[in-house]
């Protein structure tokens, strides 16, 4: 739990730092955009002043000044529309796409007026013309730069997360394999000895019932050994009657559970074939049932229901235990997560691995309410 908590804190710190960095980049980009916009405004004000000076020099000596004319003609990037006092429009750096250019320029000037405040050229108290201008190509491209930047950051973050997840899953798989094989090996040695002692007891005058019970436990240990050997490699799936496999697992645990636990089974009639590894599937059912018994603290009702659907079968396991909060619905399947004082938090993680990775099925918390109980759902596809 402590390790999981520290990892969660680190993740939040990384997210917060990333958010701050992205925010700073976007803010600087916005300021850069505004600076360009202000510079274009100054440039357009210079154009309007140049036109006013051009009219002024014409009134004074009748000659056209070269400097104002040069300033006006120097605009080669900013789209600009000039409306004179008679309502006639002229344009610069604007592509005319219709034969009725005056109407087109009028509509475009209205659009420019929403982007930038128009500039009036006033001389002797009279409005000679009005300048409408839009954003240059550079500003328009710069406007989409933050979105492109965010997209790049998201893609880069996704790539990092993908490699991190792949590395983590690979490490977990190695750990699972090593642990499973070592466990199977460790159990195998005393198991062989127990089989020998069982055969020896048969030659003695020992109650056959005792020997039968010992053999049942030996068979159980062999099943456990088989499970661990299979979890460390890709298990073989064969068409199996899931109804009988579920019934066997439930009956085994019912016989070994407290009488204060009431088992209510509602399984399907007849056989339903599912591509299963029965040893691992029964392990999953047992893990879920044991988890439910622990949640009920050894007293309550346990319901096992099977639902037959056209292409799949659902197994619902419900208890009347302490229940889960919604934030635990997913974390409960994480390796190492446990609410018990004792335990490694492997049971539900194993169940998820067996159902989803090995059997291409689904397992989830279907519903839960604190103080009332929890329902787990397993969904598996039928054999074709």
Which terms summarize this structure?
single chain; 10 helices; alpha+beta; rod-shaped; 18% strand; 4-stranded antiparallel β-sheet
Secondary structure elements and their pairing?
Elements: H1 2-61, H2 66-73, E1 80-84, E2 89-92, H3 101-115, E3 119-123, E4 126-133, H4 137-143, H5 145-202, H6 208-231, E5 238-241, H7 242-255, E6 261-266, E7 273-276, H8 278-295, E8 300-308, E9 312-318, H9 328-331, H10 347-358, E10 362-369, E11 373-381
Parallel strand pairs: 6-8
Antiparallel strand pairs: 1-2, 1-4, 3-4, 5-7, 8-9, 9-11, 10-11
Strands, total number? 11
CATH superfamily caption of the largest domain: Histidine kinase-like ATPase, C-terminal domain
Oligomer designation: single chain
Poorly predicted spans: none
Biggest β-sheet strands, sense, barrel: 5 strands, mixed
